[in-house]
Design goal:
Chain lengths: 298, 233
């Protein structure tokens, strides 16, 4: 085992981790404002990836336009799901919304199975994302370099929105106190819709880069990344946006390093995220960057 | 400015407000006094649109029953809620920004200046989290935040709650001076003596119904009120 391989694996883990992080942000923000674990979030990632596939293959858009259209449509889908499935239950018990979220998840998975079949489809990788770079003997796929950059740019943009725009400040206010946010003259339903749009757009970005990494997509592809991103959100501290990104990086890097250095355990690679989840829930349920939930979030 | 007729509020089977009538004329301080659970907060929440009432509420000539809270706020009504409810996770400036949610970016600067001139303590701590403020300072912030929307009617729910007497006096001085500057105020208080001293007109609320109303002075001198609310024998 030499430094070259370690570096290579670290970049690889960072890249996988940034995908988990992108998806985890949606979990954490939705939880922050309406205290709902949106179990359909991983499936929104899947749908976003299909949107990108169809935009590029059926509608023959150039790759960048296909990605933009897919991200925008995923954002709309998130808003639509909130409106028809979760909003009517806003004042119901939390368990009702949670079960509804699981229902929405099954609906999306099976709808896509029925419509497009279970046979995996090839996701065409644009020229710019293929190829490798050599850095002092370390061979790194270009996509493994681009993915973390995209994730970090998204994270920084989101932090800017949350800290400096009126709607971002309102999201943080809302995470503390919905009723008082209302009497400030803010349309709380619109702000929640905006949160779903942001989370779903990030999930679609995660899904597209997931497909650029593993270019074979199917209607159940969102399940495992979705669950691991959920574990990442809890690990980072559910409700905390930087925490979600950090949790994603930790889980991604752990998973890659375990496979690289303990190949005999490679078959259990999916279990490590959940092992981490169990330990967090046992010893620090508020996660790494999480605080008391009653103090508001983001 | 505010005309309320036959206002009813139900929480499930509980009939919290049983058809009350009251008016808040322009440039006046009107107070609703009464004991715990009499329906004072329910009245303010119904007017602000946070609970759905039955009856008629006319604000600046518009019917606002059934309207959503954020739309009522945009029409020029501001509520300082009971227990202050500042956003402890936001900085003081961000709290004020929330108060001015309906304002355009270009309108903010003079509003901040006005708030900081009126409450210098907030200026010193503009970038601190509101959670680090004392109870009295949080009440000032809640008041400043409500004023950011430049309301036509300011509703205050128990502004004296949990504050030291010296701070309470300060808060009431500010309310009085706001009124002198032309602000119309609807004040809900358990501390009836204080409220009646600064109010023009008063309503006494008992078990969800109005049992007495009149000029604040006459209510202050009412024997029943002195016994029940001012602790005199």
């Amino acid at each position: 085992m030499n430094i070259t391989i370690i570096l290579q694996q670290l970049v690889n883990g960072l890249s996988l981790g940034s995908l988990y992080g992108l998806i985890a942000i949606g979990y954490t923000m939705v939880y922050g404002v309406i205290r709902l674990i949106n179990f359909a979030h991983g499936d929104i990632m899947m749908v976003g990836t299909y949107f990108a596939l169809f935009a590029a293959t059926t509608f023959l858009l150039p790759w960048w336009a296909a990605f933009i259209v897919a991200i925008a449509l995923a954002a709309l889908l998130g808003v639509f799901i909130d409106k028809v499935a979760y909003k009517p239950l806003r004042n119901a018990s939390r368990i009702s919304s949670l079960i509804t979220a699981i229902g929405v998840s099954f609906l999306l998975e099976n709808l896509f199975l029925v419509l497009f079949g279970g046979v995996p489809r090839a996701f065409k990788i644009p020229q710019v994302f293929s190829g490798v770079v050599h850095l002092n003997g370390v061979i790194i796929p270009i996509i493994a370099l681009i993915t973390p950059i995209v994730a970090i740019v998204c994270l920084l943009l989101l932090m800017q929105i949350l800290q400096h725009t009126k709607y971002g400040i309102a999201m943080r206010a809302l995470s503390l106190d919905m009723e008082t946010t209302r009497i400030m003259g803010a349309n709380v339903d619109a702000i929640i819709a905006f949160v779903f749009a942001i989370g779903s757009a990030l999930a679609a970005i995660g899904g597209i880069f997931w497909a650029l990494r593993y270019p074979s997509i199917n209607p159940l592809m969102g399940i495992m990344p979705g669950l691991k991103a959920f574990a990442a959100a809890v690990l980072g501290g559910i409700g905390s946006v930087p925490g979600a990104a950090l949790g994603g990086f930790i889980i991604g890097i752990t998973e890659i390093l375990v496979v690289a250095f303990l190949p005999s355990l490679a078959g259990y690679k999916d279990a490590f995220a959940f092992l981490l989840l169990i330990f967090v829930l046992l010893f620090k349920p508020t996660g790494i960057m999480g605080e008391d939930l009653e103090k508001g979030r983001f | 400015m505010l005309k309320v007729k036959d206002l009813n509020v139900y929480y499930g089977v509980i009939h919290a407000l049983k058809g009350i009538d009251f008016n808040v004329p322009e440039n006046k301080i009107v107070t609703l006094i009464g004991s715990n659970g009499a329906g004072k907060s329910s009245t303010l929440k119904a007017v602000a649109g946070l609970v759905k009432p039955k009856g008629k509420i006319s604000f600046l000539g518009h019917n606002i029953v059934g309207k959503r809270a954020y739309k009522i706020t945009k029409q020029g009504l501001a509520l300082v809620p009971e227990g202050r409810h500042v956003f402890v996770n936001l900085s003081i400036t961000e709290n004020l920004r929330m108060g001015a949610f309906g304002k355009k970016y270009s309108e903010l600067k003079p509003l901040y200046k006005k708030a900081f001139d009126m409450f210098p303590i907030l200026k010193e701590r503009a970038n601190q989290k509101a959670g680090t403020l004392s109870g009295g300072e949080q009440q000032m912030l809640a008041l400043a935040r409500a004023l950011m929307s430049e309301p036509s009617l300011l509703m205050l729910d128990e502004p004296s709650l949990g504050l030291a007497p010296k701070i309470v006096a300060e808060v009431f001085d500010i309310i009085k001076s706001l009124n002198r500057g032309g602000m119309t105020i609807l004040l809900v208080e358990q501390n009836a003596g204080l409220a009646l001293k600064i109010a023009d007109y008063a309503y006494v609320l008992e078990n969800g119904a109005i049992t007495l109303e009149g000029d604040a002075k006459s209510v202050l001198n009412n024997e029943q009120v002195r016994k029940s609310y001012l602790g005199e024998i």
